[in-house]
């Protein structure tokens, strides 16, 4: 029986990137829909679960994408609520590449240092990728500093992470002033920068003055990069005693995780690939 992936995208046009990855992951048929919302998704889900017998539903799966991660989360929840009993298919959410990118970033750091007990600073920590990277780090036992320009936004993200990860150690930090950024960087061993494209979050000079820093991961590919002195192609590059990764250096792992997660959808009809599940797939590669 042919493997069918149903791509539900919250943007008007379904992502070409996600479609290419699906094909490379071995999908036989790809049905792509744009402009999907919680209000219009029920019929699409019913079409997925009522057209094949229960033993064959593992050959149909749903992928949720789009540039708006908050909209993707709402759609992800609605799809799961539409399932009932054995009438379900596996579903994955990776809007804006948020889960696969965050998983790849943490795995890069994990190759270079123990995460349990580490003090990690996530710059741009309230964004979709930063939030998920911080959540994964918390689950690994790290002490997380979630940084944003304003403390209020950082507090909201910390609360959400604490809801998702029991015993999470997360602290909000504002980084709107040089003094606040200095406080956030004090004694950190890991920095992950996941801020907006083209915005430098920490300068080369400040990075060079962090004696405790061991690993720096910058997920911004648009100059100026988020961490000064890190280059986009860096992959475990030693720069002044700090192991550095740039966006493309992390990108290969992100692509492997993405393809593997799509393939995993077809192993059974009851998988829910969220942040933690996608990270677990990355660990298994």
Key features of this structure:
285 residues, Rossmann fold, seven-stranded mixed beta sheet
Explain what the structure shows.
- The chain has 285 residues and is α/β, with parallel strands linked by helices.
- It is 40% helix and 20% strand.
- The protein is built from ten helices and twelve strands.
- Strands 7-6-5-8-9-11-10 form a seven-stranded mixed β-sheet, with helices on both faces. A five-stranded parallel β-sheet has the order 2-1-3-4-12, sandwiched between helices.
- Strand 5, helix 5 (128-139) and strand 6 form a beta-alpha-beta unit.
- It is elongated and about 60 Å long.
- The model has no long low-confidence stretch (mean pLDDT 97).
